[in-house]
Amino acid sequence: xxxxxxxxxxxxxxxxxxxxxxxxxKKVVLGNGLRSDENEKVVVSKSGILCKRKNIFYxxxxxxxxxxxxxxxxxxxxxxxxxxxxxxxINCSELASLPYLAFEGATKKNRPDINIxxxxxxxxxxxxxxxxxxxxxxxxxxxxxxxxxxxxGLMFSCTINLVRKILNEKCTLLHLLSKECPxxxxxxxxxxxxxxxxxxxxxxxxxxxxxxxxxxxxxxxxNLVDRFAxxxxxxN
Amino acid sequence: MKxxxxxxxxxxxxxxxxxxxxxxxxxxxxxxxxLGIFFxxxxxxxxxxxxxxxxxxxxxxxxxxxxxxxxxxxxxxxxVEMSNEKMSESCIVTTxxxxxxxxxxxxxxxxxxCIIAEEKVWNLRVDVSILNNEGNVTDCACIxxxxxxxxxxxxxxxxxxxxxxIIHKSSEKDLIPTVLHHYPICMTYALFKGKIPIADPxxxxxxxxxxxxxxxxxxxxxxxxxxxxxxxxxxxxxxQKCSEMAAERAKHVVEFIKSTLEQDSIDREKSNVKGFKQxxxxxxxxxxxxxEQSIDNNAEEISEVASNHDEIIVVSQEQKFKKIDExxxxxxxxxxxxxxxxxxxxxxxxxxQSNQEKSKVxxxxxxxxxxxxxETIILN
Lengths: 236, 380
Description:
Largest interface: A-B, 41 and 29 residues
Domain K Homology (chain A): 153-199
Number of strands of chain B: 15
Mean pLDDT of chain A: 88
Distance between the termini of chain A: 56 Å
Number of helices of chain A: 5
Radius of gyration of chain B: 30 Å
Number of domains of chain A: 3
Pfam families (chain A): KH_6, RRP40_S1
Distance between the termini of chain B: 46 Å
Low-confidence stretches of chain B: 285-291, 310-354, 358-380
Largest sheet of chain A: 6 strands, antiparallel
Largest sheet of chain B: 6 strands, mixed
CATH topology of the domain at 26-181 and 249-277 in chain B: Ribosomal Protein S5, domain 2
Structural class of chain A: alpha+beta
GO cellular component, one term (chain A): nuclear exosome (RNase complex)
Low-confidence stretches of chain A: none
Family (chain A): Belongs to the RRP40 family.
Helix content of chain A: 10-25%
Helix content of chain B: 40-55%
Strand content of chain A: 25-35%
Radius of gyration of chain A: 20 Å
Number of strands of chain A: 17
CATH class of the domain at 26-181 and 249-277 in chain B: Alpha Beta
Number of helices of chain B: 7
CATH superfamily of the largest domain in chain A: K Homology domain, type 1
Oligomer: heterodimer
Organism (chain A): Polypedilum vanderplanki
Mean pLDDT of chain B: 77
Strand content of chain B: 15-25%
């Protein structure tokens, strides 16, 4: 069965639009939940909603398991340390390696001060099905930018769906929340969100509001934030 | 599934928040999560949810030889299973706590489970499966096991003098409920800094603190079991305080179990058993990037066609039965006519013969079904 962008798709459906674009010698990127077989047919391999951004096609599906992909920003927990690497748990099937030298200003002698159990916000450098994923804490220019260790605050797990939702341009939740109170947030696409604010009470409220957003449509985000604001004034 | 490592941030945050008398899920320190008990269609099967923790318990019975030390008492066997590992440490601990709370408190009337003293007794088997662990599995498993035992009904059996007995089917004699003297309920408190008790800890809270206190208490404020893990308690007042709080809670839980049992029996009388489907919360539909979706006209048409199709099948089956019935009646008529008219038409005879065969087959089927109903299990 042929499907179009915006439809609810099931595994086995065929995406004609991507095929025809490819035949016109335009570059087409197949994202999450799509694959092409030998006959260059684009077949859906996950159930969800078919989306398209520029020339990227992907299926937006509900899932909790993270499959690493290059350039994803993720939140990892340091599991163990070896001579050259940190082994980091990024919620996927195996531990990812993070070299000591992949930090800003790190040298052989000057090692980053990170302990087991610490949270690290990092990028996936390499993801190969046959190798463990490799992480990095600097960008291409060697600057750390937003990446690095996350101190204090609260990290919680959620579905990957929710992270994608709050990072979507259409979602006004984070913007609306920032008008109510100052806070820090790091959203790892591996289904982990870290938040920090000036007191514990606010952090807990923020966490619950973000988790509630999973079941809230975009146009009702305002109501959700209004409720958050009224609860916030009740506490302080 | 492998367990993820606990991050330092979470540990520090939870400890800090408890100090400020706050919990991550907005509960009070001594507040329990919402409890839900859902009975299945079968007697003795129950699904219990405590927050997001879910446990399924099923009770079954079999005839066994009693222990030589207690020849006139039945036995109870409790088995806890977690899906992640075959026999993990927490699994064994939970099994042992349940055994001590339910079996060793002698809440089940074991003497009523005796069929023939020293020879045959009922053995009740409680299978508890942990479906989802969001903390405090012990409480949830205990409530599930107790309510499954209270819900369970075993078949009646009659003994004859010479050591033989018959187990009756539910269609012959009413099933007998299990006699419970009291309902022991487990209450778990996690201890922070060895002195702040937190009722009904979540998985995160359980992992942050190793110290815990599990009390088995019934509605008469009697402590049936006590289990402590992690750092040992320093003050005896704490146990007293916890047990008083637990006793209050146990009363409410037992009342809740009893009221759900009553509701279930009322539903059963009306033959309106809802089963586990009522445990599904329908409001939590995940909204995705598509906010609202209109159903295709095609889909509606398909469903309409499907429903019509079902009806057609049902009707056709009914018609078939009717036809057969008519045929059987007609065969008798044909017979009479045949005897009277002494077979004038050859075609009519063949028809009647085929009809007679049909009617024979039907009568055979009826006989066999009768046999099944009359069948009883005879055990030596």
